[in-house]
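User: I'm putting together a teaching handout on how multi-component assemblies are represented. Below are the sequence lines for each component of a complex, exactly as they appear in our records. Could you produce the 3D structure of the whole assembly as structure tokens, so the students can see both representations side by side? Please keep the chain order the same as the input.
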Amino acid sequence: MASDESQFVEYPLLIDINQPPVFVIVCYDTTISEGDPYSCEITMIDPANPVGYSTSLDFNHQPVGAILNSTGPSTWSLEFTPDYTQVDSSFTVALTGDDSFRQVSHSFMISVINRPLSVASIDPVAVQRDLLTSEQIAITFNEAVDPATVPTGIIATSSRGLTLRRTYDAEQYVVVVDHTSGALAPLDTLAVTINSNLLDLAGKPFSPALQFSLRTGADVYPGDANNDGVVDERDLLPMGRYWGNQGPPRSETPDLQFVKSPAHVRAGLYSWSPYNVVYADADGNGQVEANDICGLGQNWLLTHSAAKQETAEAAQAVEEIETSVRQQMLAAAIECPESGGVQRLRDLLGASLGVTVDPMPDRIELYGNYPNPFNPSTTISFFLPDAALVHLEIFNLLGQSVSTLVDGRMNSGHHEVVWDGLDRSGGSAASGVYVYRLQCDKDNFTTRRMILLK
Ligand SMILES: [Ca+2]
Ligand SMILES: [Ca+2]
Ligand SMILES: [Ca+2]
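Assistant: Of course. Below is the structure of the complete assembly, with chains in the same order as your input.
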């Protein structure tokens, strides 16, 4: 029996000198999205392949676009990137290894699903959506869209009633929203809706709907010439640097109120150059000049949140402004209505030019008392542009007169009066809030409050 067995075992070894090839790494059933590259590696081992026989690998079935690359003597890689026409399809891939004598086979399934259409980016991005530097909105999608569905799938409206165009770039998957003239109108609100009428090339809708809006121009305080969000001495340098520059006005009449308002954008064919010069034009009349100094002084230290930090100038010396321009700026600051900011501007410019500027308000000014709160006395100061009959009186919060400090004619100029904290009867006034009222020539008066704190 032993010798029979031995003969039985050896017999096939003698005739079966060519072993069938074997797949070592194979590809299995898988699900992939359109557009996503799929690849798998195949290694075929062919033991004892006799001389004269070669090893090969073939597709029996394959989806359109799938290729088999030879990567070595016995390795291949299968590469497949399905397109939109293959969405919702399944493909059976069959591989056959062949050494010209024997074969090995393996099959598996690739299922292709839709990749949802989505927005990859919107330019300008949310934080920059004042469009000061942009004449258009670019919406980039993650994949191609059906151009025929863009007109009803992307709705864009202008608060000024302008017709906005949507142009599709099939190469970049970008829809550009702009105005047919090429420039978006200033001070407009543009609302964009992307809805389910928009289809991808596989016919699948954009979902859920996306809405956003942006304004052409952000609310800023006039005088923030470097556009960093605060009106302060750093704004002197850009204002001085752009002195005399011209651009499109924001309105027919200059805004001498200098209230927080939308920043300007380029209109039509006209533009400021560089564009951020517009921030130095505080009154919006289309020129950087004397009035704008007043806006800077009037809005001194006010802040707003719509600044474009990237355009902010670093703090630099006022001396970098041309001397003749500094002289013009100082002359303008002297003419501005009096305010703490204007005083500061005058001091800065005056110091840089080596001149001292006396404050010369053109109207009656009643300043805050010092110290405040106080005990027992405080100093009240005021300015008279002209000589006047002056009455300065102190009241408690019940409206009762506590003391009269001045009652008579005074010359023009700066005056200081001390209140010693005593009432009419010569007793010490109680702790509390008091009002002091300055009346000139009986026809106009102004009041301020102070606190006596014991
Ligand atoms: Ca898709
Ligand atoms: Ca600033
Ligand atoms: Ca101006």
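A couple of points students might notice: Residues 34, 84, 114-115, 117, 143, 200, 202, 204 surround calcium ion (ligand 1) (CB under 6 Å). Helices lie at 2-15, 150-153, 236-241, 290-298, 323-335, 340-353.
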